[in-house]
Design a protein that fits this description.
Blueprint: H1 6-66, E1 83-98, E2 103-115, E3 130-133, H2 135-138, E4 146-148, E5 155-156, E6 164-169, E7 173-185, E8 197-206, E9 214-218, E10 227-229, E11 240-253, E12 258-270, H3 273-290, H4 301-325, H5 334-362, H6 367-382, H7 392-404, H8 414-420
Parallel strand pairs: 1-9, 1-10
Antiparallel strand pairs: 1-2, 2-7, 3-6, 4-8, 5-7, 6-7, 8-12, 11-12
């Protein structure tokens, strides 16, 4: 009878099979959940034990290295050989170059590397060829007293922690790196300002050790000569552009000792666009404007005088504005020479007009006219009270009226004379 209803048979089979599979699946999941934490915990405990063992080995190793170590003596002190310190710079940002204060600054990674045989160790117990040390370890070992001879306020960055790094290699080589901002003095030649090119030096050396004790060398890596610059980050340097640099190994001689030193020279070219638009072009236009007086009529005296006075005041204002931005030097700069040439050119134009006006209008060569003019001036001067400056403006206006007269004045010009009187 069951054969007549096959779907009932299939339904019964499914009802019996599903609970069994579900129980087996739950059992397997519970087994996995029960076994997984235990396996992870055991692996983690093994890693922690291994890591703590390495840390203990490093601690014992450093303690053994510092045992009987005297940080007051430099490496090679007993043998008498000088300690060689290798320097390299990686400049990240440059500027500002302050020509008014004769200083420049840049941000860099300053790295020093030297070898101290007393710090060599065997890495068989730790498996590392290089160890990163803390700043507390740095205070316990000898380090060179490097400083910047022409420094003017350098500092080490301390946000969020002091930006310093110390690494120790198996042979005792120490790498000491720090991120610093260097501010140094720069002797600038302003004779060609603002067309000048400046060479700013940075001198690195030891403060106390002579060249017989500590010698500085550039750390050359590949194509770098000890100095590497990120040119993309300094492309927007204001006022100047960095055209290049050169490195040197030098020595500083004092009265009794010679000190080893390293020198790098940065070459800067000043941007000329600002000075061209604010000083050179306006002065050139003012000079062209004073030439307009050559094409005006001789009788237009007031217009000529007005143009001349306006041009003089404009050049004076441009000169004062240039003084506020230019460095204070004893010798004249190229910009000052240019402004003075423009000023003298305008002055020559005014002198030329004065001479021409005198010889063509008043100095006609007729004795009678000259006598009449002298008599008129005597009469005007007689009307001036002594030590009375209240009528000075009236006198000046009378002279201007005389200059603006289009005809040669005569003594019968009673109206003008009465006004001046």
């Amino acid at each position: 009878m069951l054969l007549r209803y096959p779907h009932l048979i299939l339904t019964l089979i499914l009802i019996l099979i599903i609970p069994v599979q579900t129980e087996e699946f739950k059992y397997r999941i519970e087994n996995v959940k029960y076994q997984k934490p235990g396996s992870i915990r055991s692996k983690r405990d093994t890693f922690v034990r291994r890591e703590s063992g390495v840390a203990q080995n490093v601690t014992h190793l450093l303690n053994d290295v510092l045992n009987n170590y005297d940080q007051h003596f430099r490496p090679g002190f007993k043998s008498g050989k000088p300690t060689k310190v290798y320097i390299d710079l990686f400049i990240r940002t440059m500027g500002p170059v302050a020509d008014l204060a004769y200083t420049y600054s840049f941000n860099c990674y300053f790295r020093q590397k030297w070898t101290d045989d007393r710090l060599h160790f065997n890495n068989s117990g730790i498996g590392f060829r290089q160890l990163s040390l803390s700043m507390a370890m740095l205070d316990k070992i000898w380090k060179p007293d490097t400083y910047f001879w022409n420094g003017a306020g350098s500092y080490v960055h301390g946000i969020t922690t002091p930006n310093r790094l110390v690494r120790l290699e198996t042979d005792g080589t120490i790498l000491y790196s720090s991120r610093i901002t260097v501010k140094a003095k720069c002797q600038m030649d302003m004779s060609r300002y603002p067309l000048d090119k400046q060479a700013c030096r940075l001198i690195i050396g030891s403060y106390a050790y002579s060249s017989d004790e500590v010698q500085y060398k550039w750390r050359i890596m590949g194509e770098d000569n000890g100095v590497k610059i990120d040119y993309e980050s300094i492309a927007d340097l204001p006022q100047f552009s960095l055209s290049g640099f050169k490195v040197y190994e030098a020595a500083n001689l004092t009265r009794d000792k010679e000190y080893s030193a390293l020198e790098v020279r940065f070459y800067f070219d000043r941007h000329f666009g600002y000075f061209l638009m604010n000083f050179y072009v306006p002065c050139a236009l003012v000079v062209l404007l004073c030439w307009v007086a050559f094409f005006t009529k001789r009788e237009a005296t007031a217009e000529r005088i007005g143009i001349g006075i306006t041009n003089v005041l404009t050049i004076v204002l441009i000169s004062l504005d240039s003084k506020s931005d230019s460095p204070k030097v004893d010798s004249p700069t190229a910009l000052e020479v240019y402004i003075w040439i423009c000023y003298l050119t305008h002055l020559i134009c005014m002198v030329e007009f004065t001479v021409v006006h005198y010889h063509t209008k008043y100095n006609t060569g007729d004795p009678e006219i000259q006598e009449v003019e002298r008599e008129r001036l005597r009469q005007i001067i007689k009307q001036i009270p002594k030590y009375d400056f209240s009528k000075m403006s009236l006198i000046i206006s009378c002279f201007l009226e005389i200059l603006k007269t289009d005809h040669i004045p005569h003594s019968n010009d009673e109206m003008l004379l009465n006004q001046c009187q």
